[in-house]
Amino acid sequence: MKTVYSFADEKMTKTINALKNEYASIRAGRASAAVLDKIRVDYYGTPTPVNQLAAVSVAEARILTIQPWDKSTLHAIEKAIQTSDIGINPQNDGTVIRLTFPPLTEDRRKEIVKTIRSTAEDSKVAIRSIRRDCIDKLKKMEKASEITEDDLKEGEKQIQDKTDKYIKEIETVSAAKEKEVMEI
């Protein structure tokens, strides 16, 4: 039974971490290096993350600077950013690329909040799916006489408690990201 609990904890924690990573890449009107996490640059035929080719730093609240270690990659990084879906046009001065994050419009903020809520709902569905899988495992164990009926009831209760805890955490993380996006 302990393996079922540890399985549930592990899978649910991974779901929360995936949600946080997804939220980190959502642009909230202020500069964040996380928006570059999904961008890959063709570096000698190998798709390479920007942060492995350059120093990425937040110069001001709305300006991100990218300083490549190898100057020959400057144009490749610029091209990768232009073709990505982050919606920011890079400014290249020959040594550094600057990304200036424009303030978000009210409509864009509302779109982002919808995306945040949708992603949160997907994570909740994933948590509930893990709960269902774990309860099914417990029922199989009870059927195979590995655990008693009372153990099954207790196990179901514990799995439900874990589910409630992780769903509450999803709601907390989601609310914090929504608040961040809606701030001016």
In short:
The protein is α+β, with helices and mostly antiparallel strands. The protein has helices at residues 2-24, 74-83, 106-143, 149-182; strands spanning 40-43, 46-49, 54-60, 63-68, 91-92, 97-100.
SSE order and pairing:
Elements: H1 2-24, E1 40-43, E2 46-49, E3 54-60, E4 63-68, H2 74-83, E5 91-92, E6 97-100, H3 106-143, H4 149-182
Antiparallel strand pairs: 1-2, 3-4, 4-6, 5-6
Protein model, in words:
- With 184 residues, this protein is an alpha+beta fold.
- It has helices at residues 2-24, 74-83, 106-143, 149-182; strands spanning 40-43, 46-49, 54-60, 63-68, 91-92, 97-100.
- Strands 3-4-6-5 form a four-stranded antiparallel beta sheet, with helices on one face. A two-stranded antiparallel sheet has the order 1-2.
- Strand 1 and strand 2 form a beta hairpin.
- The radius of gyration is 22 Å and the shape is elongated.
Mean pLDDT over all positions: 86
What is the helical fraction, as a range of percent? 55-70%
Strand order of the largest sheet: 3-4-6-5
End-to-end span in angstroms?
49 Å
- State the total count of DSSP E strands: 6
Q: Which overall shape is indicated by the principal axes computed on the Cα atoms?
A: elongated
Characterize the biggest β-sheet.
4 strands, antiparallel
Order of helices and strands: HEEEEHEEHH
SS strand fraction: 5-15%
Rg, rounded, reads 22 Å
List unreliable stretches of 5+ residues.
none
Task: Identify the notable features of this structure and list them briefly.
184 residues; four-stranded antiparallel sheet; two-stranded antiparallel ribbon; 57% helix
